[in-house]
Write a structure and sequence with these properties.
Elements: E1 9-10, E2 13-14, H1 60-69, H2 81-97, H3 112-122, H4 125-132, H5 206-221, H6 272-289, H7 292-308, H8 314-329, H9 333-347, H10 355-369, H11 372-381, H12 384-387, H13 390-404, H14 407-415, H15 421-426, H16 429-443, E3 448-449, H17 450-456, H18 462-471, E4 478-481, E5 484-487, H19 495-503
Antiparallel strand pairs: 1-2, 3-5, 4-5
Helix pairs in contact: 2-3, 3-4, 6-7, 7-8, 8-9, 10-11, 10-13, 13-14, 16-19, 17-18
Length: 510
Amino acid sequence: MAHTQSIPSTGAFTAVTARRNFGKSLPPEPTLPSSTSPSPARSTTGSTNGTDRGKRDWPPSVRSYVQRSFAEENILPNISREEMEIKLKQVISQSVEADTLTTVDWDNLRLPQAMIQNEKGRGNHAHIFQSSFMPNSNLTITVHETNDAKSKKRKSSDLEVSDGLSNQTSPWKRNDSRSAFESRISYPEKRARSEAGSDHVSSKSSQVLDGRKKRFENASTGLAPLRPWRSSASQATPSEEPKGPIVGRCQDLEKKYFRLTSAPNPDTVRPLPVLEKTLELLKKKWRQEKNYHYICDQFKSLRQDLTVQHLKTGFTVHAYETHARIALEKGDLSEYNQCQTQLRALYAQNLGGHPTEFLAYRILYFLHTSNLTDMNDVLADLKPTDKQDPDVKHALDTRSALALGNYHRFFKLYHDNLHMGAYLMDMFVARERLSALSVICKVYKPDVKLRFITEELGFESDDESARFICDNGAQHLFEERDDGVHLLTGKASNFFESAFKAASAPKTHI
């Protein structure tokens, strides 16, 4: 029979006596659920069905304890999430009943998964829990069926702390999906779970139980247990770990590239003499077949074999330079950047090669990406001897022409390029042609001949220049006359300037 406590009302509110523990019949908190007999009803002011629940202000140490329990680094693979939530519920409920919520050292208290592991290893659940938490506690945790008992899949959301807390979730916890139990600890709702949960441990397979037994045997014999986040290979003793670079034994000239996920196997790595033959074969196949997909895959495999063997010689420089030139020829800036990064480190060791050639490529690449910061760093590191090199001098003249807006000189340098620099300039020459057209339309009015544009902007023919202008949507600016085709610059307005700005967005290739 429910007991109603009469408290005089003063003003516009009703005073309610604060509840201290589970043993007193004070509103508004109900008792823990029981599977055998219902708890005596406790009355609240204006309500006897227990739907109006108060909110418990959990100490920060309790919240931190719950968060650490569900942290990734503390999760054990042999402990299920449901077992952890049952144990966590038991620990917190027992503390609340004993009125020791603020006196327990939550920062140093063992996590629930550690308690469960000890209990399963020694077969003494109650004794271990009491010795680790409170020796005088005898709280019994019970379960009962809910409306969701018919569901075949058990959910972690079915386990909650039955401590009379509100069934609303705190605003700062609503978007946290890491842990259903963790997100409800500051404001949980009372639910129940299936009675089948009590039989969860007993349903484990014999193989898992044997594994646990072996781990505890290792602990008793002084052997270090296998960490769940490490493989057996990573826990090998120092004497078993390979020391220094490996030496390959593979004799295959061609080998597909595979990303390494473990220590390299010497039987699948080619030694230096074989790699030298492989490079010559790849250069020959590139000249004959021009199959870039195959060549790129083979070069990546060759570079990987050099890396795992720590080979840094003149041959290493030659291999990276060759791959970088082929990547430039095909416009693959991603592979080019990878080679360029390694080449900078190799050039610093004075292993030979062509450092000034690739220094010129770096300058042209920064012109393509409009990376002024890295460009300034390169210019600051230039030595007087570097500036005298033809490749570097050509790249510096190109940078100067763009900085001054001298498109006439820029397109002359474009046709006078050395080595592979023309492939890099091809990547931003269209952008500079739009910039030059913007200037021409402002200076030459009302029109100019198409032939003039072909010569100034470095096109090979009038058809090519006309096609470029049409591809940028300016075909309406052409007018055919007796003396040839003219571009109506007076009607262009800011058309080419807008197209230039759209093509000038910063570019980064990883």
